[in-house]
Design goal:
Elements (H helix, E strand, L loop, with lengths): L6 H19 L9 H10 L15 H4 L15 H4 L9 E6 L2 E2 L13 E5 L8 H10 L4 H8 L5 E5 L9 E7 L6 E11 L4 E10 L5 E11 L4 E10 L7 E11 L4 E10 L2 E10 L5 E8 L6 E10 L5 E10 L4 E10 L6 E11 L5 E10 L4 E10 L3 H8 L5 H14 L8 H15 L1
């Protein structure tokens, strides 16, 4: 990895060094700290635009600020404040405010014994080997090492063996109004045991008036015959000087005959970087990745995916779509890796983009890296504007130009959510997309 440690990086590393040693004095309040991981962070620095994987995503402007760790006791919200962020259907609710778990805002439904939700600090020693294996899937860079060094909080969700979760689990990450720029780190572990099935939603919201830099890691482990549907909804509204930066790393390990459907909806944020790395390590496992992103103004949304076919007879299908407006930028970098022994692999990837302005930019790079010879794989990318003939067709039938644009964009976006089986969940997500498009 090519790392350039300039003055901006060095100042940020020094700032993190001060925060880290401050945290060590109150280490009993945090799940864990690791001096070894922090030393790796200091040595590696952050990837820059000179690194191929970060070529179009410059984090340097967000490293120039002075950040502080949020106060655990500074809780300013109640259940009424959450009302506009909640699903319209019943589910377990796990709320994090400024990086810390909030028991008074969370709801665990008692009539669903298939789901066990515990604090991450109580699970780190129990699942050490699982977390170590999950960490190996993720790229080795400064952001990961920094998260390994310390986290503010997190949760472990376990779906019990041969159980079907009665309700979805909704994890809400919320940053509220703050007087200074905040730095937040979380780690979450989701375990779907053998034969279990569940649906989870992970939402990111912000009402902060000052900048927030969040660095999150999520580990998914799906055992034999397990099924997991995961939704990631990112709505980080910029307010006042509140630039929102989200660095999000997700690893997923799929074992024999397991299934993962994962949806990433990145709708708002000054800078969002999603790293999604999936390893199909059990025969006949299957992964479906769906993504939609809609940056506007000067926002940058970057989706990097890796689907690693490590064993034979596995299937993956990836569809990412983007609508880019104003002076915004989007990045899609998707890679399918088929290892030498992964014969009978079926893997497909597609990226489609609509540019709504002359200044909107998308960088797309679908990739295939195949070392097996008995496979079916394809990839492709398209970028363009809304179809003039379709606009004319709608306007000729009395629909205004504005409404015609909206209808075409919604139809383009809702292709991502079309196969969601739950009508309530699909309609809720489509409303979130529609609000952004409007």
């Amino acid at each position: 990895m090519s790392i350039i440690t300039g003055s901006t990086q060095q100042l940020f590393i020094e700032q993190m060094n001060l925060l880290f040693h401050e945290i060590k004095l109150n280490k009993d309040q945090l799940p864990y700290i690791s001096e070894e991981a922090f030393e790796r962070f200091c040595q590696s620095g952050f990837p820059t635009v000179r690194n191929e994987e970060w070529k179009y995503t410059n984090t340097e402007p967000f490293l120039k600020r002075s950040y502080s760790i949020p106060d655990r006791d500074n809780v300013q919200l109640n259940n009424d404040d959450l009302s506009g962020l909640l699903t319209t259907f019943q589910c377990h609710r796990v709320v994090f405010l400024n990086g810390y778990f909030q028991s008074q805002l969370s709801v665990i439904l008692e009539d669903d014994s298939s789901v066990e939700i515990t604090a991450i600090k109580d699970c780190l020693s129990l699942y050490t080997d699982m977390i170590k294996t999950a960490d190996e899937i993720l790229p080795k860079d400064g952001w990961k090492y920094l998260n390994d060094a310390f986290i503010l909080d997190g949760t472990c969700i376990r779906i019990k063996k041969n159980n079907v979760a009665k309700y979805p689990v909704h994890i809400i990450h919320l940053t509220d109004q703050n007087e200074q720029a905040l730095f937040i780190q979380n780690k979450n572990l989701i375990i779907v045991e053998q034969g279990a099935q569940a649906t989870c939603i992970e939402s990111f919201y912000s009402t902060a008036l000052k900048p927030v830099l969040s660095n999150h890691i999520l580990h998914l482990n799906i055992a034999d015959d397990g099924h997991l549907t995961w939704f990631k909804l990112q709505q980080l509204q910029d307010r006042a000087d509140g630039q929102q930066t989200l660095i999000n790393y997700t690893s997923a390990s799929l074992h024999k005959q397991s299934r993962l459907n994962i949806y990433t909806l990145a709708l708002n944020g000054s800078l969002i970087r999603n790293n999604l790395h999936i390893k199909l390590c059990g025969a006949n496992s299957e992964a479906r990745l769906n993504g939609f992103y809609a940056p506007s103004d000067k926002q940058l949304i970057d989706n990097h995916t890796l689907v690693d076919h490590a064993v034979p007879n596995c299937y993956s299908n990836e569809l990412y779509k983007g609508i880019i407006n104003d002076n915004a930028k989007a990045v899609f970098n998707g890679k399918i890796l088929v290892r030498k022994d992964a014969q009978k692999t079926n893997a497909f990837q597609s990226n489609k983009n609509i540019l709504l302005s002359d200044n909107a930019i998308v960088y797309t790079k679908p990739q295939l890296e195949i070392f097996a010879d008995d496979v079916k794989c394809s990839h492709g990318a398209t970028s363009g504007q809304l179809d003039d003939e379709s606009l004319f067709y709608l306007q000729a039938r009395g629909i205004s130009k504005r409404e015609a644009y909206k209808m075409l964009m919604l139809a383009f976006a809702e292709d991502i959510t079309a196969d969601i089986q739950s009508d309530e969940l699909r309609n809720w997500l489509n409303r979130c997309i529609e609000e952004k498009i409007q």
